[in-house]
Structure formats: structure tokens, C-alpha cells
Specification:
Layout lengths: L13 E3 L2 E4 L11 E5 L2 E14 L2 E2 L9 E2 L4 E12 L5 E12 L5 E13 L6 E9 L2 E9 L6 E12 L2
Antiparallel strand pairs: 1-2, 3-4, 4-12, 5-11, 6-11, 7-8, 7-12, 8-9, 10-11
């Protein structure tokens, strides 16, 4: 028996479990990540994520240690906009641009990185550091805090532009 499909109605926007993800003005909201692909060139994409962590850590997408998934056989240009802050309002802000290669076994190697420091108020005697980190099928940033017991909150808005090279 044939089923007639109904027209999709978007009056008031689209929601998942009563949380609006696309509003009536076509704005995407409250997304964990956003992937954009060209339907003509399916071997490439760009995806945006937000990574977080405290103190010395590997930054993550959630509370269970999830990192950014990087596909096998890809070359990736990764841009991270970094903000770190302590409870007294001391700020570190930077942009890290990295090139990462994932081989056929999904081993992600960071080929090179360039860091542009935008704001550095870190007090003398303290160390706040962040570096890109590749692993098997994963990418993130590793942070270091030293010389203080203050909690350092790290947030990185990360864009991954990926192309399958094989």
C-alpha cells in the first residue's frame, strides 16, 4: 500500500524535544556541531565545534571525554578561537591555526600550527598553555596550568575544514 507523504510544515521553526534548533527566521540555534557540505563535492566538509575543559586537561565536547572525530585519509585545516579565564577575570585569548593529517589507519598527526595571541594577562609566575593534539581518529587541544591553584576555564570554538585525499 502506497503512503502519501505530507508536506513538511515549519511554522514557528523546527525543534527536537521542545528545543528550537531552527527558528522561524531560519536561524540555527542550540546545536552541538554544525557540518556544511557541498552536494557536488562530497569529499570535503567544514564542521564547527565547541571544546571545553578546566586547568590541565584534554579539552572535550561533553562531560565524558569526547573529542573531535577526524576521518581516515583526510587532510584538515583546523582553526581554534581560544579563551581562557580564571575566577578573578584574568584572560588569555588566542587563535590557533593547525594543519592535521589523518592516514589510512586514522592516526591524526598535527603537521604544523601557528598561534596568534590576542590577549595575555597571565600573571608572572603562572603558566597557561594550549597546544593541538592528534590521536587515533581524534583531535583536540591539550592545556596546562602551573604556578596557581585558581581554576582556569578553557573554551575553544573550533572549525575543521576536511578533505578526503584518497
Amino acid at each position: 500500500m502506497a503512503t502519501e507523504l505530507e508536506k513538511f510544515d515549519s511554522t514557528g521553526g523546527f525543534s527536537i524535544d521542545k528545543t528550537t534548533v531552527v527558528d522561524e527566521l531560519r536561524n540555527a540555534k542550540d546545536l552541538n556541531s554544525l557540518e556544511i557540505k557541498n552536494s557536488e563535492f562530497t569529499d570535503s566538509s567544514t564542521t564547527n565545534y565547541i571544546l571545553r575543559g578546566l586547568n590541565t586537561a584534554v579539552l572535550q565536547l561533553d562531560n565524558v571525554g569526547t573529542q573531535i572525530v577526524i576521518g581516515a585519509n583526510t587532510l584538515n585545516f583546523i582553526t581554534g578561537h581560544v579563551v581562557a579565564v580564571n575566577p578573578t577575570g584574568v584572560v588569555y585569548a588566542a587563535k590557533i591555526e593547525s594543519c592535521a593529517f589523518s592516514d589510512s589507519a586514522s592516526l591524526v598527526s598535527v603537521l604544523s600550527s601557528m598561534t596568534t595571541v590576542i590577549k595575555d594577562d597571565i600573571p608572572a609566575g603562572q603558566t597557561w598553555d594550549i597546544v593541538p593534539l592528534g590521536a587515533t581518529g581524534r583531535f583536540s587541544y591539550s592545556t596546562t596550568r602551573a604556578g596557581t591553584t585558581n581554576i582556569i576555564k578553557w573554551v575553544v570554538s573550533t572549525q575543521v575544514v576536511s578533505i578526503d585525499w584518497q
